[in-house]
Amino acid sequence: MVGQLRSVVLDCPNPSELASFYEKLLGASRLAGGDDTWVVIVASGTRIAFQLAPEYQPPVFPDPHGSQQFHLDVLVEDIEEAEPRALEIGARSLPQDTDNDDTFRVYLDPVGHPFCLVWLS
Questions:
Q1: What is the CATH number of the domain that holds 84?
Q2: What's the structural domain count of the chain?
Q3: For residue 89, which of 18, 72, 76, 102 sits 20 to 30 Å off, Cα-Cα?
Q4: E strand or H helix at 58, and its extent?
Q5: 3-state DSSP assignment of residue 41
Q6: pLDDT tens, residue by residue, 54-97
Q7: pTM for the structure as a whole
Q8: What's the gap between Cα 42 and its chain centre?
């Protein structure tokens, strides 16, 4: 082993605002010591950090010429309850792929990072 994963880090135009979205989505807690350039939350024992990127450009998704590169899968018990709550706090729904076996739906966070709500069937 070379090392251990410390954090997943997302670039964004406003770390505090995007951290607030993920706090609500994941029931996470914010760690003390953040500032305008760096905020860290902990969700189910996983650190997610939000880093200021002044020239931030959201990923293009879906992109017929490339992949989404990275996304978070968020496990939910009931998609019919979880989806409206995610949309209410700022998620944006994407057209769904009808070939996905109906175990996940794809969304964008408020600054355009893709994530999925997934459930066990």
A1: 3.30.720
A2: 2
A3: 102
A4: none
A5: strand
A6: 999 998 877 778 777 789 999 999 999 999 999 999 999 988 87
A7: 0.90
A8: 13
